[in-house]
Amino acid sequence: MDLEYSQEYKDFQQEVRAFTKTHGHKSPKGSAVARPNAQVREWQALLIEHGYTARTIPKQYGGYGGEADILKNVIIAEELNRAGLNRGISNQGVTMLIPTLLEIGSEVQRQQWIKPTLYGEVMWCQGYSEPSAGSDLAALRTSGTEDGDDFLINGHKIWTSSAHVADMMFILVRTEPDAPKHHGISYMLLPMDTPGIEIQPLVSMTGVAEFNEVFFTDVRLKQDKIVGKRGEGWQVANTTLKHERGMLGDPDRTARQLQGLIDCLKTESVGGRPLMDFPVYRDRVLRIQARVKAMQYNSMRVLTCNLKEQDAGVARLIVKLNATILNNEICETAIDLLGETGALFGDSDYVRRNGMWQYAYMYSLGLIIGGGTSQIQKNIIAERGLGLPREPKPKL
Ligand SMILES: Cc1cc2nc3c(=O)[nH]c(=O)nc-3n(C[C@H](O)[C@H](O)[C@H](O)COP(=O)(O)OP(=O)(O)OC[C@H]3O[C@@H](n4cnc5c(N)ncnc54)[C@H](O)[C@@H]3O)c2cc1C
What's this model's pTM, rounded to 2 decimal places? Predict the structure, then answer.
């Protein structure tokens, strides 16, 4: 099998490589959780202009408007990763809401929200989970009762990432309280500065307050802010979840982490010899490398099916489970490779890369839970992918 790129793709590779050399110095560094600053927004605009992000989003919504091309996507990721450059904004608005609006949103909603979200001017958070509705999301109780042209929203969301910096929330609200559990939910677009919203930070095990509790007291929202149809938000929510799980399973992020691991083999040493000299360490990293390759090819298979408008089946359903576990194992391996310095946290002269691996390890544990836990992913794979019997429901 010839895995070489054809001339067309080699030319494209040269084009992207030239871009990284000319513009690489403009790439922002640092956390993706923060609100996009001017540098992040300028870099995003540059990437869109060249078609290196938002490649297939139509021009009228601010995207590049190109044809879907899996190999070009791979080349863009490879070249930006190789040069250590930022891949563009990948917050919840860009990765989860925009594709949902493209699939289900009204023309008015697409015109209003896609471009400012894409360019980092509007930041979103996801209002799904509640204290009694996590894995069993359809048990959500936050209510929307009709009041003239408005809904009055009352309730309580939890684990809401980035709510403290977000302008908008895509929120699930029960608008038909008498309907069966999976019906009667509406998916709404809510400005975070609406009176009646109170945000309280929650510190995760990374030590940073990345998510929040959000309380709603008589929060007024116009009824035309619903995405899809009233009472049919469960389908919209699942469309967003599909994109969330795809985003959490991004093979490029895992490939970048693998590269960091390989760098550890070269830079860390035992008895004056680099870890790379020891078969025991090389072997561990090679095993991970094989799994990363498998993940990258699986992703290409899923993308190919998407382009042909076919369901990738199990190949799609395994993505989130596989990626989040693998990301966690990569971080765990890096911490092992760092030896005693791997146990350091916070300020220390000896901590490597500002404690990046320790932070990434803690963060990766959270992502095994967020977007649907591993146990729930296994249920989905078993029931929807393999056709096994549904798990018994407790009799209430
Ligand atoms: C880092 C992070 C970011 C998050 N960001 C957001 C966000 O932005 N917006 C948002 O709305 N939510 C967010 N969440 C919440 C996340 O979606 C929920 O934590 C998740 O769905 C699990 O729900 P839960 O915490 O209520 O746990 P529970 O549902 O109470 O689950 C507890 C345990 O029971 C297991 N379990 C539950 N049901 C079953 C079953 N049927 N079969 C087998 N095992 C089961 C679970 O796997 C888990 O181990 C985030 C969570 C994390 C960790």
Answer: 0.94
